[in-house]
Amino acid sequence: MIKNRKVLILEIIGTLFVIFLGTALHFTFALSGNSPIVGSFSAVNESVWEHVKLPFWPSLFWLLIMMIPLRKTVSNFFSSKAIGIVLMMVIIPLVFYSYTAFTEEILAIDIATFMISVIIGQVVSYSLYKQENRSRLTEVVAIAVIALLAIIFIMFTFYPPHLPIFMDSETGHYGI
């Protein structure tokens, strides 16, 4: 069972890191002069899909940092992180579409949703660390899921499906 205070502290730092970097990624595409490379990792428009990138990329980056100190401490590291990341990605559109069914978009709710989704995802990941003895196959599948999500995010930045979740709410355009 994980009772390591260091792991908890790293997850708290990770939560702050993901919130800070995810917030910055909302603006980096425009600040970069609309660089396609930066756009692969930043929100390129005001679509719900692009806002789901905001917790994904910082969480992936933090996962890569955490992998070093935790590889011998947490036996189900990748599956725990994958579940936390996917949860963040699900909460954002779920809350957005739920509240906008009744009212117009409210920036404060969107910001709070992002922050809360990160906190929930990090708490869930940390909680799942305690369920040791995941199979090696589960860890490999989790790595594959995370890698597939990264590929999908990059691909859909340039070639988004013409579905409402991908449409920029301000311009009606899709992707870059």
Describe this structure in words.
Helix content is 69%, strand content 0%. By secondary structure, the chain is mostly helical. It has one domain (5-166). 33% of the residues are buried.
Topology of this structure?
Blueprint: H1 5-25, H2 28-31, H3 36-39, H4 48-70, H5 77-100, H6 107-129, H7 136-158
Helix pairs in contact: 1-4, 1-6, 4-5, 4-7, 5-6, 5-7
Quick description:
Helices cover 69% and strands 0% of the residues. It contains 7 helices and no strands.
Q: What is the strand content? A: under 5%
- Care to count the β-strands? 0
Q: Report the biggest beta sheet as strand number plus sense, adding barrel if it closes.
A: none
How would you sum up the global shape?
globular
Given the helix and strand composition, which structural class is it? mainly alpha
Quote the average pLDDT: 92
The low-confidence runs, each spanning 5 or more residues with pLDDT under 50, are none
Distance from N terminus to C terminus (CA atoms, Å) equals 45 Å
Which labels suit this protein?
176 residues
